[in-house]
Amino acid sequence: MVTNRKIVLHPLQRLFGEDFNPKLFIYTIRRSAILLILLPLMTIGIAFFYIRYTIPIYEAHCILMIKSENPAQVLNLQKGLVESNTKLWAEVEVMKSNVILNRVVKELPLCISYFKKGNIIDDELYRRSPVVIKTEIKDPVLYGIHIDFNFKDENNYYISYKTGNKTHKISQSFNKTLQTPHLKITVRLADYLQGKFDNDLINNNYYFIINTIKTESLNLRRTKNLTVKILNPDAGTIKIIYYSRHQVKAKEICNTIANEYLNYDDESKNESALNIMNFIDDQLNNVG
To answer: Are the beta carbons of 193 and 139 closer than 8 angstroms?
Structure first.
């Protein structure tokens, strides 16, 4: 005699099929509960730190048009395009040369880099430093090293640095000259702090780095931050691109490269014209 039994299915079995084992599923979920909670929290944490501490990179660019001064090239009577491209590549190399970059470093406040120490990332204070420092290096060992700077109060400060295994810590008043065996330094408060000193500055830690013109120009040339390329050979245009973590610094370096190139080009043309005039005068004097 065959008896029919009514099988009662678990709701999950009705959803996933009779072979589904709800007890095993619930057991697995309980064992993995911690992982299921930690995984999204870890993902959110990583995303937060990435957004919070990733420094944005700014791009500044400008475009220069190099005009041909050869009428034959304008009329395309002599392999004008080839000659024009050759001239453009030559001008690209001039813009990236130490001749131009040295002038850029002299024009901008790049010989001293100011920083504010952070818990994770140090902040470069380009055009935002609370002090303005003038230095005269006596010992080249100080080039490129961190020189710590701290406020004692609104009238005094102290600096510290290492030479070998020895630490030097010296204090001085603002606007007065401080001399050590390694450097001569004068520090004044930035213009925006004159008459309104912020006591919070005393709690911050700063440092500065003294750079040479040669070192900074090489840094500009060798880093991937600077790109100079031909934009349109037919139009004779060259594009200068500079990347930096600081918007103002990127813009100023890019614009200054363009301006110093134009100044250098004018000086070269004036010098050539002067040489021609001197040559003509010499020839006339010889004839006379």
So the answer is: no
Q: How many residues does the chain have?
A: 288
Write out the H or E segment, with its range, that includes residue 199. none
Distance CA 116, CA 114 (A): 7
Tell me if 112 sits within 8 A of 124, measured CB to CB. no
* 95 and 225 co-located in one domain: yes
Judge if 99 and 222 occupy the same domain: yes
Residue at which a domain ends, from 210, 233, 262:
210
Q: Which two tokens stand for residue 242?
A: 């500079």
Q: For 71-128, what is each residue's pLDDT tens digit?
A: 555 455 455 555 667 888 989 999 998 889 999 999 999 999 999 998 888 999 999 9
List the one residue out of 200, 205, 261 whose CA is nearest residue 228: 261
**pLDDT of 141-159, one tens digit each?**
999 999 999 999 999 999 9
By residue range, what is the domain housing residue 119?
Answer: 112-210
Same domain, 102 and 121: no
Beta pairing, strands 123-124 & 237-244: unpaired
Q: With H, G, I as helix, E, B as strand and everything else as coil, classify residue 60.
A: strand
Instruction: Assign residue 202 a region (left: φ > 0; alpha: ψ between -120 and 50; beta: otherwise).
Output: alpha
204 lies in the same domain as 117: yes
DSSP states of 134-167: EEEESSGGGBTS-EEEEESSSSEEEEEEEETTEE
Alpha carbon distance 172, 25 (integer Å): 73
Question: Domains in the chain: how many in total?
Answer: 2
Beta strands in 164-268 (DSSP E): 166-173, 177-179, 183-189, 206-210, 226-232, 237-244
Element (H, E) at 168: strand 166-173
